[in-house]
């Protein structure tokens, strides 16, 4: 199986490359200058030349706060670009696996969101990602859309790595405690993508297509997440950092965040038999990876 993934530096891309190397799966990361998500012609040409069995649409505009003032660019990449990737996959007869987000929901629901719940994004980023989902579905019926959330990994920039970096110079941090979600390891996401890719290449069953939620098991607030990071840090490296739990109102940002980002993964478990590990378990694995490298 040959997989092409958009982007080169993102957390999911880097995790896929690591897992592909470990499992002997041929994965090509395709990004600038070969393709530009704002230039559909470049996308079509690149994938026509590669002709992979599956295309993973992972590249995106992810600057959530900056998107509030760069809406045109966010939609160009996350909506038009995503649609162009899906269309390029359709032209070569390949399925597309598209990575989306919890930010397509408002966060007003009291329980975890299912795939059947109404979307209502409250930020430019969320609206651009929802537009991308619709564009993918419109141009390529052979699609799997995976909504994930609170992604962390040994790669790129993410909450876990930020907490570790700040812990080097601070012994106390203020962290939002009234936003709840599902921390998700990009390495776990990569494992799920590889399993899904192998199924959809071999099986045309319509129920394997559509939108699914893919997040780590359990739930946490950002403050819970930080406290768990620092508990592990204390055990592993002897560094002690305190967490002051604060409300969102005390940490204003240009873009609104959903207060409830929890996603229900039962549909993915029923359809593919995939349920990601509990988030604390996966977080420990990623932390040890980082600490072993001296980060």
From TrEMBL:
Gene3D superfamilies, per this entry? NAD(P)-binding Rossmann-like Domain, UDP-galactose 4-epimerase, domain 1
What's a single GO MF annotation on this record?
dTDP-4-dehydrorhamnose reductase activity
- Enzyme class, broadest EC rank: oxidoreductase
Q: Where is the RmlD-like substrate binding domain?
A: 1-290
Name the domain of life.
Bacteria
Q: Which reaction does it catalyse?
A: dTDP-beta-L-rhamnose + NADP(+) = dTDP-4-dehydro-beta-L-rhamnose + NADPH + H(+)
According to UniProt, this protein's pathway is:
Carbohydrate biosynthesis; dTDP-L-rhamnose biosynthesis
Name of protein: dTDP-4-dehydrorhamnose reductase
